[in-house]
User: Fold these one by one.
Assistant:
Number 1:
Amino acid sequence: MPAFSSSTVRMKAPEDAVALPVREPVDLAFWALDAARRRVGEGGDERLIEALAEELREAAADARTRGPVTAFSYVPEPRLGELARVELSALVADDTYPTMTVDLLRRYLTTPTPISFRPPEAEPRELPVGPAVRVRHAYVQDADRDGTGTILETCAYGIVPDAKWGLVLLTSWREQAHTDRLCTLTDGLAEAVAVS
């Protein structure tokens, strides 16, 4: 059993977010339709509900592939769909890396990839739950032959509440006009992470 399993990790859900069922055994299509109906509101347009339900189903299925502790689809305006995805994951120290450190998480989060759009930016932070590193990164997704694709921005925190395990809080989005707002949202979420 991982060292963090005896701890309780809490994260405040962003306002206007839909909690994604990343660990619960549910029928995603049924869940997504119900979640979309609740987010849009009573008497909402059925086409909007169906479109949002499909987006939420895809978001939940995608998040499940990474196995986070918890995940949210941030939907401040249902007619525009998901603005950002927020995931909180746990990383456990192992034989290769027996101690979890901020530097280890910094290296993990700043490793360039073949689809990195620009070099990642990292800065140390101190959070109520422990030392951390904040990393901004951008990737080119679905690039065509010319290298043109969609930019995926991320703001992540690598958090070390304990030497045996760490947390990664990751917010990702495609709408560049909302970058400052979504980084501020991520900063607030990181400040509110609690472990008991």
Note: The CA atoms of residues 59 and 153 lie 16 Å apart.
Number 2:
Amino acid sequence: MLVNGRKANKVAVFRISATQYCAFALLLSLVLSSGAFFLPNSALGWLILVDALLVIHGVYLKNKISALLRLGVAQLALTLPLYYLIHGEGQMLEGVIVVLRVFLALLPGWWLSATQKPERIGEVLSWGLPAKWAFVIAASIGLLPYMLQETKEIYAIQCLRGANITPKALRNPKNWPELIYCVVLPVLIQLLKLSKQMAKAAKLRHFGSVSKPTHWPAKREEE
């Protein structure tokens, strides 16, 4: 019984808390996102391998990456024609590398928001940032999945109304303003409403009245 108790104590000593794991995930995401822009082309293969492991981990936790993939495809479809018009056919590969770097810079952020809770991110950020800045950043990260879902719903409703914003219709630049009026502006209005509600909720909880605000405890997650 005594030996088993000592083993349990050793396991408890080396156990990583949710906040420490979030700090490691945040640091890893920053390093990988920065490496996407600063690493030479010869090192991008290793970065792709590491990001692929993050994607596997995120998908394993049942998080969807389809929206990010569509964004990458859309960026590629917009960037390559511009590179062809400005630099010619000889610089097409460079255009692909630029899009790849941007996509690799976005992947760690997706993994971080998909695997870490906003309250843990806010707690880690408050170690080096003012509490209000940490709250705003953490709240923005937490809003990403919700705003993506809202954008999908608004887009689907506008398409049912007959707006010329389908992928085929958007091939014509004349329909781009309609996308702004039908989708972008409603999403911004919804975001402003939600931001106002969050600010009111924070005020009712007396946020900002103390220098070191508390965070939702992580002990329940570790039990």
Note: Residues 83 and 91 are 7 Å apart (CA to CA).
Number 3:
Amino acid sequence: MPADVLSAAQLAVTAAVVAGMATGFTRRPGRWMRYPLFSRATFVIVTLTGTKGDRTESVNPYAFLSPKTFLLPPPQLQTVIDHLMRTGRYDRIEGDGRVLSVNGEQPIEVRDSRVVL
């Protein structure tokens, strides 16, 4: 009989953990057993092109982040663009992409070196 009870308890705990993990990826942030990393993070996926004189090249904004940083929210993207403009590396930066957040996907543009949501 104790083996059956232990087996039933293991099954109940396993089912509860699986249910918690399955509902952890829903859109309701801040609830019990939610994944706050995924539900509150905001980051961009963007393709940028920098122009200096008549030379145009792709710009990788992730190359200018701190080590081990992989999320790039819009304000930090603007900071990277400002740094590239201030140092004189580019005259203008343009691009487009998507912002991913708890509100879903939204388009984002970089026009005249300014991030536009």
Note: Residues 30-34 have pLDDT under 50 and may be disordered.
